[in-house]
Specification:
With about 120 residues, the protein is mainly alpha-helical. The protein contains five helices and two strands; from the N terminus they run H-E-E-H-H-H-H. The radius of gyration is 18 Å and the shape is elongated. It starts with 12 loop residues before the first helix and ends in a 12-residue tail after the last helix.
C-alpha cells in the first residue's frame, strides 16, 4: 500500500488577509497621488459607517483617514487618497496603529517604510 500524500494545507486567516492586501498594493510608493491638504470625503465602499470626511491638516484626522484607507481601500483608493510624502512621514507612528498584516505587507513591498535597525557594537 502506497503512503498517503499529505493533504494540501488550508491557508490561515492571516495568509488570506495578507494576500488580499498584497493584491491591492500600488507598484511603487510614487503612485500615491492623494492630496496633501484640505478635506477628503471617502466613498461608502471604503468607509460604510461613521466618519467619512477627514481634514488632512489635522494630524489625528489625517492618521484616521490613512488607517481606514490602508485597511479598507482598493488599489484605486490607495492611489487616490494616500500621498507618498504624507505616508512616509507619518509611517513610524502609523505602523503602530494598523494591523500587523497591513504593516507587514507594506513594509515587505516598500523597504523604505521598514524601521531603521540599529546594530549593537
Amino acid at each position: 500500500m502506497a503512503p498517503a500524500s499529505p493533504a494540501p494545507s488550508t491557508p490561515t486567516a492571516a495568509e488570506i488577509l495578507s494576500a488580499r492586501y498584497r493584491s491591492r498594493l500600488p507598484a511603487s510608493l510614487e503612485e500615491l497621488d492623494g492630496p496633501e491638504h484640505g478635506t477628503v470625503t471617502l466613498p461608502l465602499h471604503v468607509v460604510w459607517s461613521g466618519l467619512r470626511t477627514y481634514d488632512l491638516d489635522r494630524p489625528r484626522s489625517r492618521m484616521s483617514l490613512y488607517r481606514t484607507v490602508l485597511a479598507e481601500g482598493q488599489r484605486d483608493d490607495l492611489v487616490a487618497y494616500l500621498n507618498t510624502d504624507l505616508l512616509t512621514s507619518q509611517w513610524p507612528v502609523l505602523r503602530t496603529l494598523i494591523s500587523r498584516n497591513v504593516r507587514d505587507v507594506w513594509e515587505n513591498a516598500f523597504l523604505t517604510l521598514r524601521p531603521a535597525t540599529t546594530s549593537a557594537a
